[in-house]
Design a protein that fits this description.
Elements lengths: L24 H15 L4 E3 L9 E4 L13 E4 L4 E7 L3 E7 L4 E7 L1 H6 L1 H11 L8 E4 L9 E2 L1 H4 L10 E3 L5 E3 L1 H11 L4 E4 L14 H7 L7 E6 L3
Parallel strand pairs: 1-4, 2-3, 7-11
Antiparallel strand pairs: 3-6, 4-12, 5-6, 5-7, 8-10, 9-10
């Protein structure tokens, strides 16, 4: 989903789907209803309390908004369930093995991708009967390398083997290639069918929300994009 087509106003206009933003809860609920209805009408939308971890939740009986676990990915084999991931510069990843009837959704910021959320999501899908040689993955809009300046403490989290994902920037700083790194981790997990949208959330203010852009502009809050995948009942 983009930021368009919702009912929110102000800095989070218009399709803000995150309750964590400084937004009217009724507006957020309506935006989520609009988004879910556009993808899989009548399905139950399920999310997690995202904490930039490598943890994956398996969805059996859907939980409500107040009972969601702390995790950064979800998997399910239940028809009529719509998995939702919120992002605002991090990479949303949607995964599916249509033959097995197993789907997954992951929130991959640098910390989660580095920590193993992608591989853990694939493994959790396999536990439900998926096969990694059949799983297809789509990487949605996220912050691009040109917009993602990082400092030496960030660079120190990665090994020399990851040097290709860093481009020299201002003195003592680098530009980090998050989408490239996410694609690398998907390939490393054994997936072969991978597509990426290659849209920069930071550089397209009319289309996407961006935490970093909102911070740089001194805005009081920032909206969240919602990425969705579901199985028809």
């Amino acid at each position: 989903m983009t930021r368009r087509g919702g009912v929110s106003t102000g800095p989070v206009a218009s399709l803000n789907c995150g309750f964590g933003a400084d937004d009217d809860r009724a507006a957020v609920a309506e935006n989520r209803r609009i988004a879910a209805g556009a993808v899989l009408p009548g399905a139950t939308l399920v999310g997690v309390h995202q904490v930039h971890s490598a943890d994956v939740a398996t969805v059996g009986d859907p939980w409500d908004e107040t009972g969601k676990p702390k995790a950064d990915a979800l998997v399910t084999d239940r028809p009529g369930v719509l998995l939702g991931i919120l992002t605002a510069d991090c990479a949303p990843i949607l995964l599916a093995d249509p033959e097995a009837g197993v789907i997954g959704a992951a929130h991959a910021g640098w910390r989660g991708a580095h920590g193993g959320v992608i591989g853990n999501t694939v493994a959790a899908m396999e536990m439900l009967g998926a096969s990694r040689d059949r799983i297809g993955a789509a990487v949605g809009p996220c912050i691009a390398q040109e917009s993602y300046e990082v400092g030496p403490d960030f660079r120190a989290q990665f090994t020399d083997g990851d040097a290709r994902f860093f481009m020299a920037g201002e003195q003592g700083h680098w530009q980090f290639d998050l989408p490239g790194y996410v694609l690398h981790r998907l390939t490393e997990a054994g997936l072969q069918r991978i597509e990426a949208l290659h849209r920069d959330t930071y550089a397209e203010p009319d289309t996407f929300f961006s935490f970093r852009r909102s911070t740089h502009l001194g805005e009081p809050t920032y909206g969240r994009l919602l990425s969705l995948i579901g199985l028809r009942a």
